[in-house]
Design brief:
Elements lengths: L1 E5 L5 E6 L2 H4 L5 H15 L58 H17 L3 E4 L9 H11 L4 E4 L6 H7 L5 E4 L6 H6 L2 E5 H11 L1
Parallel strand pairs: 1-3, 3-6, 4-5, 4-6
Antiparallel strand pairs: 1-2
Helix pairs in contact: 2-3, 4-5
């Protein structure tokens, strides 16, 4: 499929062929949900914790005699049934990450790209380069192109002036091709790919 290539000045600079196998797949909300849940699970710190019996200070001396006291035969005061004791079955420090097949991850990225293309929210730029890191200038260019909450994906490396100018614009994220991920693509209103990004993504996902 063909897509117009624009410059940062919102002028047409030719067209580019988008691979049907990457940008023309049907919508798969189930695959997108699986990949996004996998991404967010990896991001969780997993540092939640409570005090267990071994972490609480307290006596382990028997409270009363074994028999004839008329009460339960309590031992340690550090157990979770006493005030100031431990927490029963509380969370422990752990990793929430889990494995997801590479084929599913690749399909999720292809699907996210295809959804943006089908919705008309995919813009292909000739390049994302600026002579100076002027945020005001970039805001004016984005406004002329009708871009709001935008994710810009460049080639192997991001132009430093463009990155610095975009870093001050709320709702605008800039990533190299290797940083392209389903969560950020779905979250953005508009996806902007440079010609280098298109070529790199097709090579990566083919």
């Amino acid at each position: 499929m063909k897509a117009d290539v624009l410059t940062l000045d919102n002028k047409k600079a030719g067209s580019v062929d988008l691979a049907e196998a990457i940008f023309g797949l049907p919508s798969r909300p189930d695959i997108l949900a699986r990949v996004i849940q996998w991404q967010l699970a990896k991001r969780r710190a997993g540092t939640h914790s409570t005090q267990r019996t071994g972490d609480v200070q307290g006596t382990t001396k028997r409270v009363g005699r074994q028999k004839g006291g008329g009460t339960a035969r309590h031992g340690s005061r550090k157990t979770n049934i006493f005030r100031g004791g431990a927490i029963g079955h509380g969370p422990v420090v752990r990793s929430h990450a889990y494995d997801l097949p590479k084929r599913v991850r690749a399909l999720g990225l292809k699907t996210a790209l295809s959804v943006k293309q089908a919705e008309g929210k995919l813009v292909v730029l000739e390049n994302a380069e600026m002579e100076a890191p002027k945020t005001k200038d970039l805001i004016a260019r984005f406004a002329a192109m009708g871009l709001g909450k935008t994710l810009v994906i460049d080639g192997a490396a991001v132009n430093e002036n463009f990155r610095r100018a975009a870093s001050n614009i709320p709702g605008v994220d800039v990533l190299p091709t290797m940083g392209a991920n389903v969560y950020d693509i779905v979250r953005a209103e508009t996806l902007v790919l440079t010609k280098d990004a298109v070529a790199a993504l097709e090579e990566r996902l083919s």
